[in-house]
Amino acid sequence: MDPIVNRVANSGLITLDLQSIVDDTPFVQMDLSSVLWQGLVLREKDLKDFLQQWDSSQHPSGVIWIDLPEDVIVPQWTYLLIQSKISSANIFVTKGPLLNAQQEFLRHWIQSMSEAQYKDQRVVIKGCTDERVSAEIQMQLVAKLLPWVKSLMYGEPCSTVPLFKRS
Q1: Going along the chain, which residue ranges are E strands?
Q2: Where is the domain boundary, 109, 138, 153?
Q3: Which partner for 8 in 47, 111, 122, 157 could form a disulfide, CB atoms 3.0-4.6 Å apart?
């Protein structure tokens, strides 16, 4: 009897699973509710004191997201100050609800992709994802990959929809 061969594993396909990228990335909420003056206003001194005490060693990589209620008065410079104080090559900082942060991180991840890994490769964009991986984000991924890849597919490696093939 012939041995069973996993043709998908031996196919050389690169599967891009954006959902697993989000799942494997730590997301930490920066809770600023304790520094709001009377629960309504964010003041510069209070924010600076908070940021001075923020222990960035507890969050060496991943995503820091800031989500404040819409009725809170937040000066425009707030997010810029936070970015300048906790910025590093391994931390992505964004604002808004968690879903927003996850989607912004994916956009950032796609933009930072390098050609080397995908040049002339056969790539499958994994299907069956949740709301974090929107159609717009998948479209951005396709636009990023098209100049590089040999072929591009969507779905599961055993059952794909061809999107593009370089002649």
Answers
A1: 14-16, 27-30, 36-37, 41-42, 62-66, 91-95, 122-126, 151-156, 159-165
A2: 109
A3: 157
4 found inside a domain:
no
pLDDT tens-digit readout, 115-151: 999 999 999 999 989 999 999 999 999 999 999 999 9
Greater confidence (9 vs 47) lies with 47
Contact assessment for residue 30 and residue 53, using Cβ atoms and an 8 Å cutoff = no
Do 155 and 95 lie in one domain? The reply is no
Same domain, residue pair 92 and 148: no
Residue 60 maps to a domain: yes
Question: How many domains is the chain built from?
Answer: 2
Q: What is the largest CA-CA distance in the chain?
A: 76
Dihedral-angle region of residue 128 (phi above 0 means left; psi in -120 to 50 means alpha; beta otherwise): left
Closest CA to 92 of 106, 111, 77, 105: 105
Q: Give me the pLDDT at residue 10, please.
A: 47
The tokens of 145 are what? 């990959």
Which of 40-44, 52-56, 105-109: highest mean pLDDT?
105-109
